[in-house]
Amino acid sequence: MEQAFKVVEIELVLMYESIHSKAPVIHGWLGRGLRVFTLAAPVVSLVLFARAAGDMRGYARVDVHISYVLLGGAVFLETYAILLMVISPWTYADLRASERLRPAPRAVLWLIKLFQPETRPRWSNRMSQYNLISYCLNDEPRWYKGLMERLEWRWNFRVKTMWDSWRYTKKITVPKDLKRLVFDQLKSKANSTMDLKSYQKLGEHRASGRSSARARRPVPAAGVERRLRVRRQHPALAHRHRPLPLREQGRHLAEAAVMISICMLYLLVMRPFMMTVSIGQIRFGNTCAEAKGSFRRADEAGDEAGCVERLRAVDTSIVEPRDVKGDRSKSVLFQAYKLAQQLLELEGATEAKRCRLVASVWVEMLCYAAGKCSGSAHARQLSQGGELLNLVWLLMAHFGVGDQYRVESGHARAKLVVDR
């Protein structure tokens, strides 16, 4: 899993540099030659200025020192830029393609490992979070918020969205447990599909929970249930990868499901161009309006824990809201109540099994959204730092899953094979 995500990270870096930077020009022979000239110019200027410094008695010493700092800073920046150019994968690839410079690629690779070790992520390694319950509790009505909403709805000035993004969005580090959950589920589905037709339909599968519920084996999550082949010459690994208790497994799965769900809500609200839903923003607005009225009652504590407990207490046996409201509201809050109640009443299901089912569904939802998001939308998001959805998109491509990389003829499929 670590090597697979590292390959995907490097690919995303190359995509970003190719699309949103001048890397194709800088790493060409013309760009490298000009980079040497841009270094020589401030160096020569600094030398000439130092030789003439003795005849500058009419100038203030402060001005002379500032000139030294500016010229020295220019030399440092140009030297640092050349160092970055040398330890770039572009330079390593060009040197490997040249037969006359065989020792050079090894030296460049050594520098890359020295300054950019494999343990350091090539991207931010963070995912955005947008909690609906926290938003509904804290987004109190104010006159300036009403003005921002009017500007957004009437003239499409997304000031309210920018305010909500700054106020209610947070970044968290993507844990290895979550990466393991996504990787293992994709690998399991890709390996269990043999014929070409069903394999091509794998990328079209929309998350409904049916495939997860009918899975023969539970989805391995977070290094909890994965079966590792422990070599005899390394007996210490057997204790290191010992399966966790069921309660601990459920906790890891529940945390992963929550992080994915909150990340998906962020994409729906703040990055709608990456999602395929047509009325997602309308559903979100109506759901928030209904949730605010439900969570902000006088008899409630007004915290997230109290809101979660309120979800359990809702009577789902009453009539459906659409039978009363019709098409006036697109809220899905009551459907969320019913779904939560059905999960709690699932026959023969322990807490760990329920968490496994929910986590599997959210991974399916994440993969479906990543496959349906257009390549231009992924490239656009790379300019803003990238999201977990971008990594999943490329990982699916290596497994041969997704619309953009589907093979229409023959029996070939793109797979990421990592030898150990």
Description:
It is a single chain. The protein has 420 residues and is mainly alpha-helical. α3 runs antiparallel to α4 and α19 crosses α21. It starts with a helix and ends in a 22-residue tail after the last helix. It has 21 helices and two strands. It is globular. A two-stranded antiparallel ribbon has the order 1-2. The protein has two domains: 114 residues, no CATH class; 273 residues, no CATH class.
- Shape, per Cα inertia axes: globular
Query: How much helicity do the residues have?
Result: 55-70%
The main sheet comes to: 2 strands, antiparallel
What is the average per-residue confidence, as pLDDT, rounded to a whole number?
A: 78
Record field, number of beta strands: 2
List segments where confidence is low: pLDDT < 50 over at least 5 consecutive residues: 215-230, 232-241
Number of helices: 21
What value does the Rg take, in angstroms? 27 Å
Q: Into how many domains do the coordinates divide? A: 2
**Approximately how much beta-strand content do the residues carry?**
under 5%
Structure class = mainly alpha
Strand order of the largest sheet: 1-2
Separation, N- and C-terminal Cα atoms: 11 Å
The helix/strand order is HHHHHHEHHHEHHHHHHHHHHHH
